[in-house]
């Protein structure tokens, strides 16, 4: 079958599916893939059910139902002071991954260079390459995972067309400060680069931190495509409702790609997300407190059994750096060992690197019930000590 598209034919199964399958095969607790145990907010689910029974169930507008586009614009205006025209600067997609795909294919042409930061989400590189783009990979390192002048200067040049930037960063659970955003913005402006910003974790931030969208940094309003996800905001990951926000010249082309990918998205779910985005601020703050409590529960438990935990600033995840433990195994080897021997699945962060990988960091998902986390901790209690003996 030599005629198959090598960009996709040669790809392995994603680490998320591989570890989730290993969890099923070993009857293990899945702290790998990022989905909560909880079914999601009942009032939002009821709004979707009501919209299915009493609402419109035929093709909605390709760009998204007007109520949701208005709700997105109002939401970002309220939370970030970002003024968006809902009719010309907002589009609804079938999930954040489709939003990113539409954005990448809208911007990148053959021969264009695209700056990406490792650890990098697995969908970015195949879509860049399908568009004919050339990824230029920069290596972020624990424990801070921060940007710096030297790394940006090493890759930005006259061939750079776009940069993909994930903030808050999965898997490293970093919420980037304004200093890093202003540094990246300066390079985007100097080299006339479009920033495609994967900000799906924007509401899942902790300890009083503030998510700052790159599009709000001076000089970035007309050169940034902002991607969001209702699935992450409301812990309804199976709904696959994504948002694309950008200035009209960028959004128009992204919309032309979107029309040939999924074209549109379930109208009942869109109506329910519009309802959810209009919820009072306390809902979002309470969600963060609940997630932070679960983060702290898993953090304290892991630390008590000897795991060096890196601080989680946002997302559903925390990471552990195995390097001080002297285990004589990579993060991938550790993850396969614990899913088989201790019945707990995690994700090796090296899977988020294509080259020069960090091989000592493991990601755990804490968006689980207390009982799930406690059972996982009980199972992991000997994972470090037995290996060292």
Written description of the protein model:
This protein is 41% helix and 14% strand. The chain contains 15 helices and 13 strands. The strands form three sheets. Strands 2-8-7-6-5-3-4 form a seven-stranded mixed sheet, with helices on both faces. The longest helix has 24 residues, at 281-304.
What's the main sheet like? 7 strands, mixed
The share of residues in extended strands comes to 5-15%
Mass-distribution shape:
globular
Report the mean per-residue pLDDT as an integer.
96
Please tell me how large the radius of gyration is. 21 Å
Summarize the structure.
With 389 residues, the chain is an alpha/beta fold.
Task: Please outline the helices and strands.
Layout: H1 6-9, H2 15-25, E1 29-30, H3 42-54, H4 66-80, E2 90-93, H5 96-107, E3 113-118, H6 124-130, E4 134-139, H7 149-155, E5 160-166, H8 178-190, E6 194-198, E7 224-229, H9 230-233, E8 242-245, H10 248-258, H11 267-277, H12 281-304, E9 309-310, E10 317-321, H13 331-341, E11 344-345, E12 347-348, E13 361-365, H14 370-380, H15 385-388
Parallel strand pairs: 1-11, 3-4, 3-5, 5-6, 6-7
Antiparallel strand pairs: 2-8, 7-8, 9-10, 10-13, 12-13
Helix pairs in contact: 3-11, 4-11, 5-6, 5-10, 12-14
């Amino acid at each position: 079958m030599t005629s198959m598209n090598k960009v996709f034919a040669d790809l392995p199964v994603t680490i998320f599916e591989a570890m989730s399958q290993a969890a099923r095969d070993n009857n293990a607790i899945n702290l790998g893939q990022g989905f909560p145990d909880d079914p999601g907010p009942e009032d939002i689910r009821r709004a979707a059910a009501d919209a299915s029974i009493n609402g419109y169930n035929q093709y909605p507008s390709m760009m998204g139902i007007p109520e949701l586009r208005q709700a997105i614009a109002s939401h970002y205006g309220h939370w970030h002071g970002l003024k968006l025209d809902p009719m010309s600067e907002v589009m609804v997609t079938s999930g954040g991954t489709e939003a990113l795909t539409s954005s990448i294919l809208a911007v990148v042409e053959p021969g264009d260079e695209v700056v990406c930061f490792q650890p990098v989400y697995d969908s970015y590189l195949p879509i860049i390459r399908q568009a004919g783009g050339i990824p230029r990979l920069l290596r972020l390192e624990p424990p801070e995972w921060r940007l710096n002048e030297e790394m940006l200067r090493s890759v930005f040049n006259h061939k750079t067309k776009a940069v993909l930037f994930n903030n808050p960063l999965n898997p490293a659970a970093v919420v980037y400060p304004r200093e890093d955003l202003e540094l990246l913005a300066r390079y985007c402006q100097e080299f006339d680069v479009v920033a495609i910003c994967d900000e799906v974790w924007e509401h899942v931030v902790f300890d009083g931190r503030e998510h700052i969208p790159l599009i709000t940094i001076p000089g970035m309003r007309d050169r940034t495509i902002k991607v969001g996800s209702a699935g992450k905001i409301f812990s309804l990951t199976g709904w696959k409702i994504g948002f694309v926000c950008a200035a009209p010249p960028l959004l128009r082309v992204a919309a032309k790609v979107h029309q040939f990918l999924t074209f549109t998205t379930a109208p009942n779910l869109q109506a329910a997300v519009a309802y959810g985005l209009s919820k009072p601020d306390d809902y979002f703050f309470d969600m963060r407190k609940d997630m932070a409590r679960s983060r702290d529960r898993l953090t304290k438990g892991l630390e008590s059994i000897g795991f060096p935990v890196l601080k989680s600033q946002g997302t559903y995840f925390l990471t552990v750096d195995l390097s001080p433990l002297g285990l004589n195994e990579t993060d991938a080897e550790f993850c396969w060992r614990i899913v088989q021997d201790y019945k707990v699945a995690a994700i090796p962060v090296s899977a988020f690197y294509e080259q020069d990988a960090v091989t000592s960091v493991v990601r755990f998902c804490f968006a689980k019930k207390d009982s799930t986390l406690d059972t996982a901790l009980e199972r992991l209690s000997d994972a470090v000590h037995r290996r060292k003996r």
